[in-house]
Amino acid sequence: MKKNYKIEVDCANCANQMEDAAKKTAGVKNAVVNFMTLKMSVEFEDGVNEKEVMERVAENCKKVEDDCKIFY
Amino acid sequence: MSSKQRKNLSRIIISAVLMIAIFFIPLEKNVEIFLYLAAYFIVGYDILIKAAKGIKNLRPLDENFLMTVATLGAIFLNFFGEENFSEAVAVMLFYQIGEFFQSYAIGKSRKNISDLMDIRPDFANIESAGKIERVDPDEVEIGTKIIVQPGEKIPIDGVVVEGNSTLNTAALTGESLPRNVKVGDEILSGCINLNGVLKIRTTKNFDESTASKILDLVENASSLKSRSENFITKFAKIYTPIVVFCAIFLAIIPPIFFAESFSVWIYRALIFLVISCPCALVISIPLTFFAALGGASRAGILIKGSNFLENLSKIKTVVMDKTGTLTKGIFEVDDIHAKNFDAENLIHLAAHVERFSTHPIGISIKNFYKNENDGCKIENVEEFFGLGVSAKINGETVHVGNEKFMEKIGAQWKSCEKLGTIIHVAINKKYVGHIVISDKLKPHSKQSVEKLFAIGVERIVMLTGDAKKIAEKISAELGIKEFYSELLPEKKVEHLEKILSEKNSGKVAFVGDGINDAPVLARADIGIAMGAMGSDAAIEAADVILMDDDPLKISQAIQIAKKTLSIVKENIYFSIGVKILCLILGAVGIANMWAAIFADVGVMVLAVLNAMRALIKV
Predict the structure, then answer these.
(1) Are residues B317 and B450 located together in one domain of the fold?
(2) Residue B82 or residue B392, greater confidence
(3) Class of domain A2-71
(4) Which residues of chain A have a CB within 8 Å of the CB of B103?
(5) Are both B6 and B111 inside the same structural domain?
(6) I need a surface site. Which of B106, B116, B209, B488 has the fewest CB within 10 A?
(7) Considering its fold, how many domains does chain B have in total?
(8) What is the SS3 assignment for B181?
């Protein structure tokens, strides 16, 4: 299960850190952040609740870059 | 400019004006310090807040935190006799200018590149109850009649059912020559209707239409990251910790063990912290790839990912299919050899016989003799499978077909020295001559082979299912030394694998038209599908898609890739080089804070500007 989300973030390094943070979130199989198109594509593990996982992803991303937004 | 950018810009301006004022107006010491601090907090307060949050989240290597330590450190040094308030504030000011520039440049290039790809149709016109209604193209079902007015984009793929017009296909193919369309023609979404009103019956959903697919492809392309991007991401992860560690080392070791001055070495350590941000690298590499992908798609070359750009730049061997790639894949009448008969009349009669034919050969004869329907009486048209066609024209029986057909009716046929498909004609079973039909080279084929060699491709191989003689002739005309003929599609894969396994092949590209060769496209290091518009299998299997069928685009794609990779290299070497140089000079005390600002912000600005060159056409 793979989904794309729009994000808002200002710097490229922060985008990379968001990618790392998202990858480490429970329920996320893989995540790619594309800074140029401002999109985060998240591959979920089987049988997880996407919304719950995305809430955790957003929380973890806030920790590495306070200024980011994920629209999920 | 977004409101956030505008706010940041005004903070930068206020702070800069303050700085300049302090510099020129003689002030009392305490007032000066107060104004410096004011300028510092105006421009940097958000960084300080973010730094505090970084500490709370246990992230000591956070960029904002490092910048805060560097600037606050420099301010405190003032109280130990260094007298350098302006430097401390300048570091923060320039850091913010750099951030502002970065966000502005990225926003701008995002917009530029998406403007280039402005093929997304916003609406479709449908007719309901005699009125034209604008609807969301998403809601239009297959088989609906849509109306496209002059100046509008074709929203959905379909077939023209009413009207004539000219289409501008530049956004799709990079080809500036407009294309004429009439009833029955298939047209692709994303083209712009130039003059006539067209009624179109849609054949696809919006999502499945060409414009949507291309946009999807281009937007996802930069998510497939290249090796250089991965390298930079990894480098950034170790770069900052190493530099910060060195800074701590510089601040502690010399003063403690060699009794040097604390303030001198702390100043040097602060220089390290300013240079510790990997921004220039992290931003300029993906930006280069993104700009290149956008620029390429503008030229009608769709590249499915940054990683493919990297492979494209390293291509040493190009394997090409013949039909549809180097040749037009359309049969054309090449020559008419009449024997004691008028050549004009021969083709005239043959065209009559082929009147109802749908075979490519028959069509080519009809295309050559345009005014076929001239009032001659045509009866008893009969098709003989694998042989030819016969008919009675103005009372005379005409046979048109291959040698076997001539033998069957007992006509004395003659062979031809010309290469191609030979179609013989007999009247009342008496031989009157033949027509030579062949596949024509594309106008740019020879030039494109020369160009490929000129830009560093070492080996070009042609694969074809056609007869050896024809392959020989074509490859000689084009200057291709190596070819394999009479290959069935699965044999093409075998030959490609053989070439791939050879040591000095380098990266191998396969170029085909996508018909029958999807497996070969998938197997090559880089599969390039040509004129693939509308062929889903080819778009699926290929890594690079050339929107029209001009073979010159192959070399153009490679050139774009080479240029992109050289910009990427320049940026990597330049950014890392300047940073390391400034670090060394800073450590020995030659470079001051201003040099550090240049190594941080200046390098980033230059790298971003350099990255934007990837957008410019090669």
Answers:
(1) yes
(2) B392
(3) alpha beta
(4) 10-11
(5) yes
(6) B488
(7) 4
(8) strand
